[in-house]
Task: inverse folding
């Protein structure tokens, strides 16, 4: 399974890279992980309701943020340069993975990445896939799945330039607190290094037999602050 690292990449270019990887997957690739970061961008998933966007398009544009509708699951989210993004382009049927299996492996990779950078109390929320620390969201997960082929994926907040989240209702909750590695540790690690580490941990988790994956702590009702 190949990891391709692109660094800071415009969001629409990221969509093109995903489509290219999907084409390779249909030709027999074993799976491709795209590791990158994006300029400030608000993305609206298929289930985004109008009230989840809390600012006008003109205001969003005036802040230098792109606004893009996408075909992934979930609602609105925010990407920014100090955020690690990994897009697993996979054939889960070929890999004999169920969607819950895939999410569990992603959760494990996120936990391993966070622990490497000093965040040890992350909790996976299976109802709204993502990782929370004391009720504050630090990582989001949203896939697009068609005929067993996945695209889109994982975003992990590294730096504390989080103001873009105030323009949306994350997880469909306008009062959802957001946090980052920098907020929690007081340190700002290199964003490219975190992105690369996340991709490596995702690949390792995907390549482990399902019976060998440890279960993460689940919090059915994490505090939302």
Result:
């Amino acid at each position: 399974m190949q990891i391709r690292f692109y660094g800071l990449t415009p969001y629409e270019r990221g969509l093109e890279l995903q489509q290219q990887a999907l084409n390779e997957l249909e030709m027999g690739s074993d799976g491709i992980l795209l590791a990158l970061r994006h300029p400030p961008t608000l993305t609206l998933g298929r289930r985004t309701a109008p009230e989840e966007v809390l600012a006008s398009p003109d205001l969003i544009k005036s802040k230098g943020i792109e606004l893009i509708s996408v075909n992934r699951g979930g609602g609105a989210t925010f990407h920014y340069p100090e955020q690690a993004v990994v897009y697993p382009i996979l054939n889960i049927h070929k890999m004999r993975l169920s969607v819950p299996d895939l999410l569990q492996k992603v959760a494990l990779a996120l936990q391993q990445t966070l622990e490497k950078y000093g965040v040890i109390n992350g909790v996976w929320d299976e109802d709204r896939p993502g990782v929370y620390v004391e009720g504050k969201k630090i990582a989001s997960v949203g896939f697009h799945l068609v005929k067993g082929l996945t695209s889109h994926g994982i975003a992990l907040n590294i730096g504390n330039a989080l103001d873009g989240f105030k323009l949306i209702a994350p997880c469909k909750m306008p009062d959802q607190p957001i946090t980052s590695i920098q907020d929690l540790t007081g340190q700002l690690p290199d964003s490219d290094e975190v992105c690369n580490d996340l991709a490596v941990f995702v690949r390792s988790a995907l390549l482990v037999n399902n019976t060998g994956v440890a279960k993460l702590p689940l919090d059915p009702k994490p505090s939302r602050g």
